[in-house]
Amino acid sequence: VPVPPAAGPGGDVALGPAVVRGGAIDLSGYRPGGPAEEQRRSDAAVARALAELAALRRSATGGPGPVGAVLEAHEALLVDPGLIEAVSAGIAAGAPAPTAWEDRLSALGGELEAMDDPYLRARAEDVRSVRQRVLAALAGAGAPEDAVPAEGPPAVLVVRELDAATAATLDPHRVAGVVTLAGGDTGHGVLVARSRGIPVYHDAGPAAAAVAPGTVVGFDARARRFVVDPDESTRRSLRELSAARAVEAERVLATAREPGATADGHPVPVLANVTTPADAGRAVAFGAQGCGLLRTEVLFGHLDDAPSVEAQAAAFAGIAEAFAGRPVTVRTWDVGGDKPLSFLPAPDEANPFLGERGLRLMRRAPEVLRDQLTAICLVARDHPVHVMFPMVSTAEEVAWALERLDEASSAIGGRPAGMRVGVMIEVPAAALAVRRVAQGLDFVSIGTNDLAQYTMAAERGNTAVSALADARQPAVLDLVSRVCAEVPEGTHVAVCGDLAGDPAAAVVLAGLGVEELSVVPTRVALVKARLRDVTLAGAQDLARRALACGSAAEVRALLAGAAGAIPA
After folding, report:
1. Can you list the pairs that 362-366 forms with residues at least 24 positions away whose Cβ atoms lie under 8 Å?
2. Bridge-based pairing state of the strands 155-159 and 225-228
3. Active-site amino acid positions
């Protein structure tokens, strides 16, 4: 019997029959008619696709917010006049409806893939998703989200990349796990799936590309082990490992509400990275001691117009209330690169990841930032809400941001008592100059995903170089260590990047001097439990050994050994 999906901490193991999604739709039984009939079929397919997307948006997992925005984008593409006219012209010229749609959407996807802008390249995935949906409707096949059988054992979904919309439609009781051919470990789709307790094995490459539908596959994402058609002995070991992880999950959840600390009582609070009130509720259930990162650009990313002060304040208050008195750190608009906003378009840049991102872009739209800061200050009157500015490189940028905060708070009677102010350390320049950059701030939070990307000059979304953008690189750990050592006295150091969610790496971070961790909700209890299994001196020793390693691979091997040495 395949391993059932493991919700919550430790759900890194999956075994089950493969469901391969994203391949060619079987149109062998399609019998073309005349142009009028083909046009009727095309119209019916569009109507069915729109109905499916609307139903997904109304569902609990595909409702308003970032996932809803993706689904709305799919709907907008389906009703785009230029696309509809091109398809109709192809049908009028004698092409069957599937051919007309395939030709036009494949051409559009190819155009997007060729773009320099990473965001536009990523939109090709949306075009492919729409193409599959329309062709499935024309072929009389089930909707893409129905690819996993409703009956039988939980399956392992094999996809090229995992987008957020797909991740949000997966049923954890029907999907034992997901295997991606490419796409990295920190994409929104992967994070959404994991937050819902669905294990993901990313970047499986050719080994997964060759998997035939129905073939049993298994993986241990934590150990980076992926197997196709395993023998009975391997299947048994995966089942046993899953059972052990389930026991581990029960153990860590039993103590999830205890404060984060090492075995000898050194406090290391563990908070959660969230986007919505639902995330907040899940985080509290897993023992989060607050929110270390609220992603506002994702929370409001589905809007065509900038949200009002009142709308933002209401959203922030809802999340703060879900955390019930625990601290919530709101990150201001982190826009640009792979995260544009329709109401705040970023400039056309040859390399947007090195262009006007985050706070840099806000300097062109200070009124948008002031509105958000006003909303944060309003909520901070009644809740322990703090503010954090992203993409900071210089002390001058911090001074500019603080001036905007003063303007916003002055307009409502002054900065709320107790509201803490900090910045993200994502750029090597900020890490190297942290003594100046963080002067007068209450805290800094290290974003290890971007810090690794910029330190290694390797875009984390680019499969060809994504392995370089590993936060376990000794150069990145050196920068984390430097920030902890050189931050101004009284300034708190946190980490909100993906590295903090790796339990063994969390021990290293604590050993380097990091005082607070913020992770995806399902990792909170696991990280807390691992911290309780080691003394501060033990964490410091592991950190020293990690800094002495010569490569990310050596660090990974060290952490794997350390994880094995710490009781699970």
Report:
1. 362/332, 362/333, 362/335, 362/401, 362/404, 363/400, 366/404
2. unpaired
3. 188, 496
Whole-number Å distance between alpha carbons of 201 and 203: 7
* Contact of 10 with 502, CB cutoff 8 Å: no
Alpha helices in 461-551 (DSSP H): 474-486, 503-512, 524-532, 536-547
Q: Which whole-number Å values give the CA distances from 400 to 392, 404, 413, 445, in the listed order?
A: 11, 7, 20, 19
Q: What is the pLDDT of residue 11?
A: 63
Which pLDDT score is estimated for 9? 58
The β-bridge partners of 219 are 14, 226
Q: Are 500 and 448 spatial neighbours (Cβ–Cβ below 8 Å)?
A: yes
Provide the strand spans (E) within 289-411.
291-295, 328-331, 385-389
pLDDT reported for residue 13: 92
Cβ distance 499 to 471 under 8 Å? yes
Q: What's the confidence (pLDDT) of residue 104?
A: 93
Give Cα 326 distance to the centre of its chain. Answer: 23
Backbone angles phi, psi at 219, to 5 degrees: -155, 155
Please, what is the Cα angle at 286 between 568 and 425, to 5 degrees? 90
Q: Which residue ranges in the chain fall short of pLDDT 70?
A: 1-11, 23, 59-70, 113-123, 144-145, 147, 163-165, 183-188, 191, 195, 302, 336-340, 346-347, 461, 463, 563-568
Q: At 467, list the tokens.
A: 């392995």
Q: Of the candidates 60, 77, 63, which has an alpha carbon nearest to the alpha carbon of residue 112?
A: 77
3-state secondary structure of 57: helix
